[in-house]
């Protein structure tokens, strides 16, 4: 045996020792997680074991202390799965999302909560809210905006009537593939996809399939993939997970017109989230249509040096014609000193004011 083979054997032996140490430490962490949950129950504290603000803080610290060679976010994803598995020992979470299996919303669920979560697919965004409100799921994940196509208006409208809080956010890069049970693109006569997916791939579809190929909007890309399994000469626009679940051929990959295509999702639940150190606050506000309305509503934010990261308007469903409700994202937590000063002043200016929650900014 030459020196290189001896060195290889030595390295493998060292890896085996480290693997045993990692396994022991993960088991120790899981025991402590269970003990923490039991202590909280004995002290009559909030029994919820999932604390978004603490998990966000842990993941940020993982990234900040990482020294490679694995990237910071890759290391954080490993810790996300460890935390997910530990949490499932004591309080398995159920999360509702826009189904069926294989949608980007499901991918967002697994990115945020890890693979040990229980998932509950539903057929519409309103059903996600209803599942959480009725206690059928601990949390829901809903799309709120896409970097190309803008706001998901159905989600914004649901926030008007719900008592749920926003507990977190997920940012997911969106890469679309043309999937089919066919082996060639030449025979494709129909393409199924969510309307936003069709819009995000418009130029590619025009160039490669032309106007003769029918484009059929459907409520989710997961359902589109199901159609592609069962129908001849059709294709679906969907992602990697849908391809694996439904065992489809990938006729073309990364067909989105903009490679930086990203969708932001919100986590909805019943918890009020305490500060994590790097947070956002979302709210709905409105007022009677008058000159300077928006300026008056936003002035307290500027005076208290609060940065607004997103502003979206929706027609008011219960006001006068041409009155609008504004969905606003702010940097910072509602309990911070400048927010405590600004929000009451903003509320005075508004005829309608609803705080949707403060929550950690997306980490991964």
Automatic annotation (TrEMBL):
Query: Which key words tag this protein in UniProt?
Result: Amino-acid biosynthesis, Aromatic amino acid biosynthesis, Coiled coil, Cytoplasm, Isomerase, Lyase, Multifunctional enzyme, Phenylalanine biosynthesis
Protein location: Cytoplasm
Q: What is its EC number?
A: 4.2.1.51, 5.4.99.5
In this chain, the site described as Essential for prephenate dehydratase activity is at: 263
> In what residue span(s) does the Chorismate mutase domain sit?
2-94
Annotated Pfam families? ACT, CM_2, PDT
Instruction: Please indicate which superkingdom the organism of origin belongs to.
Output: Bacteria
InterPro entries named among the record's database cross-references: ACT-like_dom_sf, ACT_dom, Chor_mutase/pphenate_deHydtase, Chorismate_II_sf, CM_dom_sf, CM_II_prokaryot, G/b/e-P-prot_chorismate_mutase, Preph_deHydtase
Q: Does this UniProt record's set of keywords contain Amino-acid biosynthesis?
A: yes
Task: Say if the entry is tagged with keyword Metal-binding.
Answer: no
Where is the Prephenate dehydratase domain positioned along the sequence?
94-270
- What is the name attached to this protein's record? Bifunctional chorismate mutase/prephenate dehydratase
State the organism named in the record: Candidatus Nitrosacidococcus tergens
